[in-house]
Amino acid sequence: MDFLLDWPILRWDAVRGIANNGLTRAAGIIPLVGYLILFNDRIADFMSFNTIAGVGELSPSPFLFDGIVKLRLTFFGSLFLLSSYCLFRIFRPAVLNEARGDLDFSSRVWETYSVYEIAFMEDQVFSDRWRPRTKSFWVILGRVRQRKPVLSGYRPDVRSAMFAQHGDYIRFLSREWWMGMMHTYRGARVAAMVFGIGGYLFLAVPSIDIAQAVLREVVWGR
Prior knowledge:
The chain is mainly alpha-helical. The chain has 10 helices and 2 strands; from the N terminus they run ααααααααββαα. Keywords: Membrane, Transmembrane, Transmembrane helix.
């Protein structure tokens, strides 16, 4: 049996850290930055950043990039972050709102999920469309588990009896289902990660440029 796992950095739980945070949610500054870029001929002198670095008007600029380039990098960086955030919000699995990892989700299933909800997960995991993800669920003492539901015959009013008899099975089932959800919409996951990392890099360049110029002026006086 093949266990199809993407790199951890490409799963939804990792994409969340890149695409869904305070910076990506604040990417609404794009319209303002775009407006400034359209009128860059009026703000070129203002955006030189020489005052920040303590450089006089007649002194050579200590920056590697001029102000307009830094502004454009900020614009495209913000645009990339907004794209990453939108992709995450549209395609992410809803279960990410409930738990941060497979063990956390397994505990939540144990505490709150109904017999019907757990049986629904089991039906999905045993369907022909499901791709096995975790060896701990599918391989028992060296033998591959049969695709045969275990929980379908339980009634909602015997939940405690079901957990008493199949507790470990339900935990491993929950983790398998969680891992499957983290692999949905691969194209959206990859795009969100690429846009997010690209956006951070674009935003980092102006900050590094300003920092090095200020540091050179403070330390070496030039």
